[in-house]
Amino acid sequence: MHCIRTKVIVAAVSGGKDSSTMLAILSKLSRQYGFRLIGVHIVLGLREYSEQSLQKVQQLCKEYKTPCIVVELRKLIGFTVYELARRARRPVCSVCGLVKRYILNAVAVEIGADYVALGHNADDIIAYSLKSFINQDLEQLAKFGPATETIKGLAVGRLRPLYEVYEKESLLYALVNKLPIVIDECPFRPEQPIEERIKEFMNKLEEEHPGIKLSFLRRLEKRIETYQALAGKREYKKCRYCGLVSARDICSFCKLTKRISGEPLGPRVRLEIRNLVKQIL
Ligand code: AMP
Ligand code: ZN
Question: Which of 21, 57, 120, 225 has the fewest CB atoms within 10 Å around its CB?
Fold first, then answer.
């Protein structure tokens, strides 16, 4: 007899409009299509912004009856993202991205989830992909499809359910449905990020050529495999310390934390997350 396992999607919720809209819609779809939805929020330690975000995410998950795993970075490893960045002498945004990717994947692997859903909207994808094109960073460009593959036991595939949803639309959905969301921007956001300039330019172009943004996205999606081939096949390894996906012998999270604290903290994070998952699910 075949046993059909219910698919599990982990929704990464930041407290902002996009990932909150995503969670609200996925929770409706989960009933319709019979998959299990679990929210994950990482408390990064970015001043009051992180406190507000946590509060909104908890309220949202309660309203949409979705279990939520809250991972507090400071409790887990003894440092906030800000402290990690300062000690590593790296920009907060780059350390923040690295930590988020690592923890979201670690949670999804511990849960045995099928996918991690991220809240990037259409305007984000357009801006990131055009920025990668400007930099001629094909490896980066190849990452902006609507989904990435699972690498068994090492990395859980990612979905971008809002791939064709414009920023304006996700904001409107959040407002109309009165979702609890954080309005403030992250205090560490750069003053004039290039992505914002690209968004302004593309919105002007859209006014003159309605539909150009969507057709760009659809063409990009069709071309992703070509870019992946051009970027060259990536060899995936298993981190020597934590056992999760890595481009080299040691993953970037273990490398960063080893440099700062003398100990690679990946194994500790995985253990703590395993306990957290057991308590909540
Ligand atoms: P960002 O990297 O800030 O552009 O966020 C991209 C996506 O990552 C968001 O849409 C969320 O799905 C997820 N994300 C960002 N911050 C958090 C967080 N603190 N906790 C959980 N997921 C997050
Ligand atoms: Zn590692």
Answer: 225
* Domain membership flag for residue 3: no
Instruction: Tell me the whole-structure pTM to 2 decimals.
Output: 0.94
Which tens digit of pLDDT belongs to each residue from 76-128? 999 999 999 999 999 999 999 999 999 999 999 999 999 999 999 999 999 99
Spatial distance between the Cα atoms of 27 and 159, rounded to a whole number of angstroms: 15
The best mutation among 71, 100, 104, 144 to test binding of ligand 1, ranked by most ligand atoms within 8 Å of the C-beta, falls on 100
* Ligand 1 atom 8, closest CA: 118
Q: How far apart are CA 181 and CA 164, in angstroms?
A: 21
CATH number for the domain spanning 237: value is: 3.40.50.620
The token pair that represents 56 in the structure block: 């909104």
Picking from 201, 230, 229, the residue whose alpha carbon sits closest to that of residue 216 is 201
> Which residue's CA lies nearest to atom 13 of ligand 1?
12
Q: Please identify which residue in the block is written with the tokens 């310390």.
A: 241
